[in-house]
Design a protein that fits this description.
Blueprint lengths: L2 H17 L4 H8 L3 H11 L7 H34 L3 H10 L6 H7 L4 H9 L4 H19 L6 H10 L6 H10 L39 E11 L2 E10 L4 E8 L4 H15 L6 E4 L3 H4 L1 H9 L3 E4 L9 H13 L9 H16 L13 H8 L1
Parallel strand pairs: 1-4, 4-5
Antiparallel strand pairs: 1-2, 2-3
Helix pairs in contact: 1-3, 2-3, 9-10
């Protein structure tokens, strides 16, 4: 490379280093020269006319704007993550700063969260209070529960679960810790009609009249059919609940919503419980439940047949609530590749979580199995 071209290259390198807004390390790397060489060139040409005063002023202004933009973006991220603690006590804000000091500038967080650096130093040197130490223990248990409860527990159920573990905590404290740490119950809603009441089959009267309370097991049963979407198509789920404990005592799945689906769920419940004559069996007016085969099976076992009013889902609210629960806690959270995969997950949910573990407000925050055991 000739002397003239070398001088031009040096001048271009200096101009880029002073006006591009890139770091000198980046410029040196891009140009294929050493950082020390670039620094020498910049020093040697600083007082020459390689870069005009106007270009330098523009470069400085651009750098100032870039710096302000970085600060604004960082403050926005701090506010986004720390919005919940901003309205809380200073101790909460100090704790947030400690937890995020690797991600953000400490001085910037102090400024955004309206606390002083002196206060932060005092917080760091102050021993944790008894309440703070207890919060740490409670929070550790709270973080464990979403895994055990499939992420379904909000503040009330979470509180009861912690009390069962021997922790003396209240709803407000649990709610605060869940809110501060971004822990909440997952919920969503979908709908698909599954009741076909346009038929000429016999309809039974509503014996429950929305009274879903039962004094003992096998006094009132309720059943219904719902659905699960898979990539293979719909999978239909029929269940029978014992209204005394809300326990699922019979269930069946099928790719077709025919009467044999409801019959298989009923046969499972009968085999499990051997109900006495006079047990009320309550469903909707769907053709599956009004069919001759289903009604014949009910008569054979001495059931009193009850059906909800036309088009009124509240007349079978207990089972509707169950379907809302299993969909929110299991079905809607995943994409089901096959009907078999959904069936196995439903089996695990009913027998591994819902019946033995899930707490119900209607049962004094006990699971169906625990409630039956207590009554027995």
């Amino acid at each position: 490379m000739g002397t003239k071209r070398t001088d031009e290259f040096r001048a271009d390198a200096v101009r880029i280093a002073l006006t591009s807004g890139l770091t000198r390390k980046q410029v040196a790397s891009d140009l294929g020269i050493g950082i020390s060489t670039l620094n020498k060139w910049v020093t040697a040409h600083r007082d020459t006319d390689v870069v005009s005063k106007e270009d330098l002023d523009l470069a400085r202004e651009n750098e100032r704007l870039r710096r302000e933009n970085r600060i604004l973006k960082e403050e926005r991220e701090i506010l986004k993550k720390g919005n919940a603690v901003l309205r809380g006590a200073k101790a909460m804000r100090f704790r947030f700063i400690e937890e995020h000091r690797d991600a953000f500038s400490t001085d910037r967080m102090c400024s955004v969260l309206d606390v002083s650096a002196r206060g932060l130093r005092a917080y760091r040197s102050r021993p944790a209070s008894r309440r703070q130490r207890t919060d740490v223990v409670v929070l550790a248990h709270i973080k464990e529960q979403p895994r055990l409860s499939l992420g379904s527990y909000g503040r009330p159920r979470m509180t009861e679960e912690l009390k069962e573990l021997g922790l003396n905590v209240g709803h407000r404290r649990v709610g605060r810790l869940m809110r501060e740490n971004g822990i909440w119950a997952e919920r969503s809603r979908k709908y698909k009609a599954t009741t076909d009441s346009n038929h000429a089959l016999n309809i039974a009267p509503n014996l429950l009249s929305r009274d879903f309370h039962a004094d003992r097991s096998n006094q009132k049963w309720a059943g219904d059919i719902s659905y699960v979407w898979t990539r293979e198509g719909w999978l239909y789920l029929a269940v029978i609940l014992d209204l005394h404990s809300r326990r699922v005592i019979g269930w069946a799945v099928s790719n077709r919503m025919k009467r044999d689906l409801a019959i298989r769920a009923l046969k499972m419940a009968v085999a499990l419980r051997q109900p006495p004559k006079g047990c009320i069996h309550h469903t909707d007016r769907g053709s599956q439940y009004c069919s001759h085969d289903y009604q014949k099976l009910l008569r054979q076992h001495g059931f009193k047949v009850s059906m909800r009013g036309k088009g009124n889902c509240y007349d079978n609210a207990a089972v509707e609530t169950y379907f809302k629960t299993i969909k929110a806690e299991l079905i809607w959270r995943r994409s089901w590749p096959t009907r078999r995969a959904a069936e196995l997950a439903i089996f695990e949910y009913i027998n591994g979580f819902y019946n033995p573990r899930r707490r119900h407000s209607a049962l004094g925050w006990k699971s169906p199995v625990a409630f039956e055991r207590k009554v027995a």
